[in-house]
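Quick question, first post here. What does this chain look like in 3D?
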Amino acid sequence: MKTVALVGHCGPDATLLRLAVQRAVPGITIAMANDDEAVRQHVKDGNALLVNRKLDGDFSANDGIELIQSALKGRKDLVVMLISNYEDAQKEAESAGARKGFGKSRVYAPETAELLKTALTG
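> Answer (accepted):
Ran it through. C-alpha cells below.
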C-alpha cells in the first residue's frame, strides 16, 4: 500500500482530505508535505501526491499546477492528483500528466471515493 502525501493544504482542508482518503482506502498511510523538501522526498519514495491548486506552505512553485509539472518531470510512475473545484485547472493538471482529480466540494461524493480507490490501490 502506498503513502499519500497531502501537498500544500491548510489544516482544515488536510483534515477533510485525510478523512476522505481513509474512507476510500482504509489503512493507507497519509503524510503532509508543506515544503519543497518534503515533496522531493515523497516523489523519490514513489508516494502518491494530492496537490492543492493554491499551495499553502513554503514552495518554490507558484501553484499546484507548476508543482505537478515539476514533480512529474521524467516520472510516469507517480500517482498525482490535483485538488481543485475549477475544471480548467483540472484539465491543465491532466495535460501535465496528473490523474483526474477532484474538488473539495466533491470530496465525499461516491465518484471521488472511486477515483481515490482506483488511483491508490490499482
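The longest strand covers residues 3-7.
The longest helix spans residues 11-24.
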